[in-house]
Structure prediction request, 232 residues.
Amino acid sequence: AQKVTQAQTEISVVEKEDVTLDCVYETRDTTYYLFWYKQPPSGELVFLIRRNSFDEQNEISGRYSWNFQKSTSSFNFTITASQVVDSAVYFCALSGVKTSYDKVIFGPGTSLSVIP
Amino acid sequence: EPEVTQTPSHQVTQMGQEVILRCVPISNHLYFYWYRQILGQKVEFLVSFYNNEISEKSEIFDDQFSVERPDGSNFTLKIRSTKLEDSAMYFCASSESGLADSYEQYFGPGTRLTVT
Prediction:
């Protein structure tokens, strides 16, 4: 069975601090996708990144970076120099690639509050 | 940039009433999905739809739920007789093709359903 765990339910940081959101996943598939989504207070889901299981290179996009470690089944997300606008719920998610219509399995989410 | 749209943004209905949530997927997409998020909880898969039939459905998607693509642009989720526990945010998503490398589900902004 596929499962995504985000052990941190809520995190509070002071603006400009760095913060890492943890994600651990379980799957029996050898090929899969991992995702991060942001859900601001307005409620929509904002796609941040997709990572193929064959690509273990870390990725950086501006203040965001992702650390994918297949050996520990983790896909952690770091925000550098956090800003108040980063306050949101962040979901890590997993999908198989056996079929094009594989469902996305979401983790429970981590609520991040960035305090000015 | 093309986007998935959903109407209405908020629907209030009385218990036992039928409700139809509407989605317009991105025009060249072929795969369609509904997800549900009960307030404060994770996003859960409901159903996937391809080639005018259901590809997969979760245990949440019981006989009270149905999906339809009535024309070339709309994708609808019907709840036949709403219950209080159907109150949630409902997200529609669509994806383009069977090519694993280009696979990504684009999410709509959601419809918040409140059952009173």
